[in-house]
Design goal:
The protein has helices at 9-14, 34-42, 49-53, 63-68, 122-125, 133-145, 164-175, 189-192, 199-206, 226-237, 256-268, 292-305; strands at 95-99, 102-106, 151-155, 182-186, 211-216, 241-248, 272-278, 313-318, 323-326, 332-335, 341-344, 350-353. The protein is of the alpha/beta class. The strands form two sheets. Strands 1-2-3-4-5-6-7-8-9 form a nine-stranded mixed sheet. The structure holds iron/sulfur cluster.
Amino acid sequence: MTSPDCNDWHWQLAHCITSHEQLSHLPGYISPTAEQLACARQYPMLATPFYLSLAKSAAQDDPIIRQCLPQPAECEDSAEKDPLGEREASPVPRLVHRYHDRALFVTCGSCAVHCRHCMRKRVWETPLPPPTDAELVACTDYLRRHPEVREVLISGGDPLTLEDDNIARVLDAFASVPTIEMLRIGSRTLVALPQRYTDELCRILGNCGKTVWLASHFNHPQEISPEAESAVLRLMRNGVAVVNQTVLLKGINDDADVLAKLFTGLLRIRIKPYYLFHGDPVHGTICFRTGIDAGVKIMGQLRKRISGMALPAFAIDLPQGGGKVRIEPDSFAGLAPDNTRMYYDLEGCAVLYPETTIANPHIS
Ligand code: SF4
């Protein structure tokens, strides 16, 4: 990136790469096939110049290229577009209320990168403008009638591709509901558009009157940049903490070495790895799924190598609103002859765990 404006987030969004040919200056470039072009018509390509500058070559095995270049396999599966049933769980437009104490708000349809594995690829087909005031009022009225909802996940598209005034409008609306305690913003901009974290945006996020968490979406260590690290510091100075959700992706990060580097790298820049998701069965993304056993095996390898702080929970999102389920290797190894419990250690050997306790007369 050589433009003097490349540190400006508006410039980045205005100069997004939208076709194969724009990669022709990179080493390893190969002209697209007819199948790739057909897939790009169904699920268009989009990436900021910054995101593509993280690629080492235009070869299909580069993790950056693989996450944004259309592949024919995306158009060949027969999976559903909305297997999680988000549309059915929407009591008012843009709000999804599936879990007891949390709701999801769909802010917009725009993103800084079209991730080929995206579980909401369907929204690329019908661009969604920022919410109107009337839509926000309908959502906040619903939340006032449902005081059990403590947290709103502000999602998209990518909400942080909106202008500051729209973001402030959304945050202010949800912050005005007394029973909402926390706002969580799901965004891939730390990865693809870290220039977005201006002092003004960080101030808006940190001063909306509720606790704000940012849920970032790093999938590969090549995505961790000095620009992202600086943005995290600006967020933290404004009281916004950051966690990360990674999707396990075939041919991109389904490898313990890659994920160990990613998770420890995230901790180094002060982001807590939170979830490692197995890919949802969404149309256009099946080619990225690894199978659950592959994820369990990788988690077993990671447990031996990285600290508990760096280790996210491996999880699946059950179809039709079944919710997120953590997939843990079974650690209970049974009872010894004297009834002492045994647990598997990191090497898979059963180890005795005596549960010695003493009666405390002061605690009943
Ligand atoms: S940024 Fe998020 S919503 Fe946008 S394409 Fe990527 S995964 Fe999907």
